[in-house]
UniProtKB/TrEMBL annotation:
Pfam family, one: OAF_C
Name of the featured protein: Out at first protein homolog
Family: Belongs to the OAF family.
Residue span(s) of domain Out at first C-terminal: 135-203
Domain Out at first protein BRICHOS-like: from-to ranges: 8-111
PANTHER family: OUT AT FIRST (PTHR13423), OUT AT FIRST PROTEIN HOMOLOG (PTHR13423:SF2)
Amino acid sequence: LTLFTYLCQEVKIFRALILGELERGQSQFQALCFITRLHRNEIIPSESMAKLRQKNPRTVRQAEEVRGLEHLSMDVAVNFSKGAQLSSHIHNVCAEAKEAIYTREEDVKFWLEKGVDGSMFEVLPQTSDLPDLQRCRLCADRWKPCICSYSLSIEWYPCMLKYCKSRDAGGKVSSYKCGIRSCQKGYTFDYYVPQKQLCLWDEET
């Protein structure tokens, strides 16, 4: 799992590489990309991180705050060849997931208002369109379409700045940036797949 954030473009990209089960007819690995809007208060700007050097950078760290699970319905597919209009980084980050790049309709509306070309987005089938559409874990036929779920956890990311207080000779108290607060957060993504064969991990959940 890799998380990429691009604050100036207000885009957040999750890339997951899932090892395939060759005995079940899968390829060596399967790649997924989930793209959502990045809100400005979600992560610390890179300029601040560059200024706040941490001691022992190679240390394996534990998150100081565990944030709640976010459940997202990824109901839109993103065309890989046109994705550079949304973010120039999609070409590199999602190269192995060309047919499996997903986003949400509510995020698409935000990007359209910013002038992004809507032709790169395709609304995926929903249960309202296909009444027989089931969750993949409930679907017995491996070749039928279904709604797949994929869960992941970001174990450590810089979510907030820390502020310390100092007192000058006159006793006046002031605050200054003195570190980074880390968070852990889990996500579950639901999205349409044309056949359950593309979502076999969902059988065990």
